[in-house]
Amino acid sequence: MEKRSTLWDRSRQAVVAEIVDKALELFAEQGYEATTMAQVAASAGVSQRSLFRYFGTKEDLVCGEQEALGDLLVATVEAQAPEVSTWDALRAGFTTILTASDHTPQRVLEISTLIFGNPPLRSRYSEKRLRWQRALVPVIEKRMGIESGEIPDARAMGVIATVFACVDAASELWVRHGGKADAFELYEQALAAVRG
Amino acid sequence: MEKRSTLWDRSRQAVVAEIVDKALELFAEQGYEATTMAQVAASAGVSQRSLFRYFGTKEDLVCGEQEALGDLLVATVEAQAPEVSTWDALRAGFTTILTASDHTPQRVLEISTLIFGNPPLRSRYSEKRLRWQRALVPVIEKRMGIESGEIPDARAMGVIATVFACVDAASELWVRHGGKADAFELYEQALAAVRG
DNA sequence: CGACAGATTGGCAGTGACTGACAGGCTGGC
DNA sequence: GCCAGCCTGTCAGTCACTGCCAATCTGTCG
Description:
The structure is a homodimer.
Chain A: H1 7-30, H2 37-44, H3 48-54, H4 60-63, H5 66-79, H6 86-100, H7 105-117, H8 119-143, H9 154-176, H10 183-195
The structure holds a DNA duplex.
């Protein structure tokens, strides 16, 4: 169950990477909306049906890998020492994600620009982020000394939502600065204005 | 240009209200996803084509009126006296929106439950909220004594995004408490945890 | 009252994302 | 070499949404 036959898995990864590559290329040429899934399928040399089996939705072509990063975020936050403040723990989680990305900065900027430039894409993006937030609730509650109930605590949710909001704001500004600004610095500014 | 012949406008409003009514009824019965636009059109006695002319998208059936409330929010925040703090100004804006709703609490709860229970709907919802945030940027920048540039200031964006995040968190918790909790109180708790 | 201009409506056909069902092919174990 | 199981492609269908065109309706003016 644990170990796949690695050959299939590897080729699958290769196919996925190839598809994403071609898709981003097409998006850059014609724009996201103007590109059809049929074009992506043809360009990557797979059938339309298989394309939808790899990526459930068109949006997932762009922000599909966010899925996996969520687990890393939660694990990192959970692994922070208890004496680390909630804010620092969350920050540590995000910095880990940033450095863990296996993309070049150019690629990250390209994808981010795509996301922040397309309202529906951005919507889908924040939908995924919402799942991260939900997963973080018990972790943060414990860290704040709150017993976890069925319904999240308002204080924990507020803190989590705020950090995500500031990360999002910093990301958007980073994109709008063409990647020339320091995203980390922008985040610090945003959060300082909030907590100051 | 300003004054429509009011008769048309009134009947239009009536049609819109009728459509929304029937739509929410169907959504409650069968669920949002399972209800087709054709059903809504038939139930409201209009053609499918006209339905799409009234509501550009299916999501707008649920969160279409949010549009208008945005202007009210911005206007209210802008109208706050300069000595009022940024946080209080934003809070004033949201309380105004809450009281300005022409729906019964039950209806608000019904709609909110629908939105927070359907990820794509919620996405669309936050997409609209994003536009509010953008509109607020210059207002908040001025209030914080920041000169407005082409690209928003990180501090202003952080504050705005945080308030929206806390309002969202409070709304979601209010829904998950079945409307039995005090949404305002939840917001205060969330924001206090952030700023404290 | 009757005709006219403008806007609204409905029907129709089409696009594009997405899905289920079915058939054939490739992989891995015997 | 053969069988079981997953993967893939093909096909047809659903549903949200849009452009086009004709019919209809509203208010106005002669």
